[in-house]
Amino acid sequence: MSVERHMAGMLQQIARQQDIVEIAPQGSAPKAAALAHVAERYGYMYGMAYRTGFKNSLVQVRMYRDPRPDARVREAATITAHPQAGNGGTVPGLEQGSLKPLPEAVGGVAVLKDLITFDVMAQYVADRSQKVKCYLACAVLTVILLIDRSPVEAVASGGAVALLSTVAFKVGVLRRGRITQRLTAAGFLVVRDEQGCLRFLRPGQQLPGHADPFA
Questions:
Q1: How far apart are the first and last CA of the chain?
Q2: Helix, strand, coil: what percent of the chain each, to 5?
Q3: Given a cut of 60, is residue 191 above it in pLDDT?
Q4: Has this prediction a pTM greater than 0.85?
Q5: Numbers of helices and strands, H then E, in the chain
């Protein structure tokens, strides 16, 4: 899908003043972060992100309409400054016709990229029960391979899969740790949501609710 179609689809949701706007660009977190930055300029705030679609090829980002008065001021200023957004005109913070951030938006897009990446990586950072299931699967694989392979080959194959899984878990933890450091250095507060997942909030922001997105 082209940049114009992605932008137009998102801005149509924003024009309807939906409480929740869904962004799902094909591919990488930077594209999703660029679109999320535009949504912020129209009075929305980042909610969550995860991978979905065929082979997890889509980064799905959920933006919530910010009920605070300054968000409405920001929205009105953006509408005035970019009256043709979505119809081939300029959009806030991005080069026209692309998802490349302008110099003044680079920092904001980078923060959103970190938020998105942190949430997306949650799917690949296992807790204790997930690790146990993974290693049990490796053991089962070894047993299955013993049927038509030598014990040495079976154990080596199962052990290799277990080692790769361990490395993947460790890399995920380290990457999320670095992102946490950058976001807290930028002033974000670390909290846990109702499911016990780590979330990052700007000062004065609350976790998304049901009736009121930030109640």
A1: 35
A2: 55, 15, 30
A3: yes
A4: no
A5: 6, 5
Q: Alpha-carbon distance 77 to 79, whole Å?
A: 6
29-47: b or e for each residue (b if 16 or more CB lie within 10 Å)?
A: bbbbbbbbbbbbbbbbbbb
Instruction: Report the phi/psi class of residue 88: left, alpha or beta, with left for phi > 0 and alpha for psi in -120 to 50.
Output: left
Beta strands 44-52 and 198-201: pairing type? Answer: unpaired
- pLDDT bin (cut points 50, 70, 90) of residue 177 is confident
78 CB neighbour count, 10 Å cutoff: 20
Question: CA 154 to CA 76: how far, in whole Å?
Answer: 64
Asked if the model's pLDDT at residue 120 lies above 80, the reply is yes
Contact 66, 41 (CB under 8 A): no
Find the range with the poorest average confidence among 17-26, 58-67, 203-212: 203-212
Tokens standing for residue 94: 């991005």
Split at pLDDT 50, 70, 90, the class of 212 is: very low
Gap between the Cα atoms of 199 and 179, Å rounded: 12
What is the three-class DSSP state of 63? strand
